[in-house]
Specification:
The chain is α/β, with parallel strands linked by helices and about 190 residues long. The chain is about 45% helix and about 15% strand. The protein has a 5-stranded mixed beta sheet.
């Protein structure tokens, strides 16, 4: 039976897309798998490479900022998950999703709350999604250095909020998210 683990990265940030990954692991165990939030950058990159090499299949799905704005972050996350599963070169028999919501896919699914701390294929998906999203945010930092996306990855750090207050938002910010919306209005009123 082929099992795919699915997880997303980027629900909480104020900027950037939400990404999801689906991973079907082989029988070979991958040492060091755990929740991506508990792994340092160097180890994340190493594991990303090992997972991609060892997995039977993996896929990445994405929902854009525009999609997040139009359908909300939860539905956009589920859309990214369905895209990740649909991009797999091998279809699984079952999909295990981190959380309590399932994407709209034709494969049987089961949700697992805190699955990224319990199920290795979900841990692997968590790592691939995080590394892929971090790369996107690092590349956006080259175009928009004032927001320091390389460091904050779009999350609402103190420096990011100060940059929003000073410069307003860019097209990669999620305008419907409260801190962006409030600070954008403040920026517009001051200038």
């Amino acid at each position: 039976m082929l099992i795919a683990g699915v997880d997303e990265a980027g629900r909480g940030p104020l900027a950037g897309p939400v990404l999801a990954a689906a991973v079907i692991l082989s029988k070979n165990r991958i040492k060091g798998l755990r929740d991506s939030k508990k792994i340092n950058k160097k180890e994340l990159l190493r594991l990303d490479g090992v997972i991609k090499k060892e997995a039977i299949a993996y896929g990445i799905g994405r929902a854009s900022v525009l999609e997040i704005e139009n359908i909300n972050i939860l539905r956009a996350s589920l859309l990214a998950m369905s895209r990740a599963v649909n991009s797999l070169k091998v279809m699984p028999d079952i999909v295990l999703c981190d959380g309590n919501q399932t994407p709209d896919i034709s494969v049987p699914t089961k949700t697992i709350i805190k699955g990224d701390t319990k199920i290795e294929s979900i841990m692997a998906a968590s790592i691939i999604a995080k590394v892929a999203r971090d790369r996107i945010m690092t590349s956006l930092d080259i175009i928009y250095p004032q927001y320091n996306f390389r460091s904050n990855k779009g999350y609402p750090t103190k420096m990011h909020l100060l940059a929003l207050k000073r410069y307003g938002s860019c097209k990669h910010h999620r305008e419907t998210f409260n801190p962006v919306n409030k600070l954008d209005n403040l920026f517009r009123n001051e200038y």
